[in-house]
Amino acid sequence: MATVEQKVPDLGDFKDVPIIELLVKPGDSVQAEQGLLLLESEKATMEVPASQAGKVVELKVKTGDKVSAGDVIALIETSAPPPQASPTRGEGARPSAPDKSAPSPSTGEGKDGGESKPLTPPPQPAPAQGEDVTPVIIATPGSVHASPAVRLFARELGVDLTRVSGSGPKGRILKSDVQAHVKKVMAGAQLAAPGGAGLPQMPAIDFSKFGPVESKPLSRIRKLSASNLHRSWVLVPHVTQFDEADITELDAFRRESAEDAKKKGIKLTMLAFLLKASAKTLLEFPELCASLAPDGENLVLKKYVHIGVAVDTPNGLVVPVIRDVDKKGIFQLAEELALVSEKARAARLSPPDLQGGCFSISSLGGIGGTKFTPIVNAPEVAILGVSKSQMRPVWDGKGFVPRLILPLSLSYDHRVIDGAQAARVTTYLAELLGDIRRLLL
Ligand code: CAO
Fold it and tell me: What is the pLDDT of residue 37?
């Protein structure tokens, strides 16, 4: 046992440097290199480490005292034998490198691989009292202010200290600040999961408490489309514009043509006409055939007219894309439509079949319903929903006449399309569908 004086090491040009914090108290056990106190000069905050391990017997200073090199700051009781001699700085003050001929600590075996011997570390010269340590600079003006121990703690947790606010003297970051920061981040992450929009999580409910249940795994397609739909729903400010088209003449024409189509093995539904009319609408309103650039600075106008069609399959919703719709005839579109929907239902679509769309159509007309609000297939900026057409009495100025009315729902990204423009779009589309001759103009 020996009691050594721990002195303030060489501080360079500094004298009378204030102590801003004591990091230990009498009775504390300290390791060699463990910080004892913090000094703050005009240029840096420095930590004075213990020169050797031991127990703090007495502190000779208090916070606010001013110290210079050589001042005694603490008495430390060590178990090491007292130093034989005071080596001079740079000439053995630090522990020397182990003797390479000594037994290897990793194996415990002698050089000759013979009998294993108990390991004892090679003897190390004891350092000079209070002079072998170097102050550790832990902060300079404008930098993060934290002790090495707190830095190590933060590193272990992956915490970026520049994001932590310090509650210690002069804004120094304490261990408790790092802990509070981690708690805050974790609480935020939980709130934001899983969508990242700060939405509260759906509580997990055990439905079997209320009656029998069965768990059915979701198909890959359903999981993929769920994530795409959720992203669009959360990121795109949606508005849906409703309208109606009088398709009495168009449907009569379709029925007439359906016979010819059938001879060619083609099923002619309203959807082929809707594709053609939508393509003409996209050419008339180019901002509908566009995507917002990721930087939000530009609108990317597409000079091609590829339209996706939502297809209901046993595995979930898919949206194959029909290319160059503006350049194709009605029969060709009907044929391609039948082909892609068959491919979709047989799960034979490949990634290119699903890419490159400018606009989408979702038709529930073959099923039923009066109106619905489709979700924009982002990064597209609009989608047309089509519901079941119905014969309705319409006032023609003299009396009610039966007309076939097709409900339309145009959902759009309000960042790109204004309400007035959306109303112009559906009016234009309804006029095209109301008078098929316009499609030729
Ligand atoms: N009004 C009235 N009848 C309509 C109609 C409409 N708007 N649209 C189609 N029909 C009729 C068709 O003429 C056909 O009649 P017949 O059987 O007498 O010939 C019948 O409904 C079935 O049509 P269809 O569905 O086979 O063909 P389609 O070209 O209209 O649609 C397809 C093809 C692939 C789009 C469709 O089958 C489909 O999958 N629709 C669902 C899309 C979907 O799920 N959208 C929701 C997405 S958001 O969740």
Answer: 85
- The string of pLDDT tens digits covering residues 114-141 is 333 333 333 344 444 444 567 666 655 5
pTM value is: 0.62
Closest protein CA for atom 34 of ligand 1: 311
CB 250 within 8 A of CB 432: no
Query: What is the residue-wise DSSP string for 322-367?
Result: E--GGGS-HHHHHHHHHHHHHHHHTT---GGGG---SEEEEE-TTT
pLDDT at 14: 78
Peptide bond before residue 125 is cis, with ω within 30 degrees of 0: no
| Alpha-carbon dihedral sign for residues 413, 419, 424, 427 | positive
pLDDT computed for residue 159 by the predictor: 86
Spatial separation of the C-alpha atoms in residues 49 and 31, rounded to whole Å: 9
Q: What is the CA radius of gyration of the chain?
A: 39
Mean pLDDT of the chain: 84
The yes-or-no answer on residue 414 being catalytic is: yes
Identify which of 246, 247, 269, 403 to mutate to test ligand 1's pocket (most ligand atoms within 8 A of the CB). 269
Do 423 and 417 form a contact (C-beta atoms < 8 A)? no
Nearest CA to ligand 1 atom 17: 366
Interval between CA 281 and ligand 1 midpoint (Å): 21
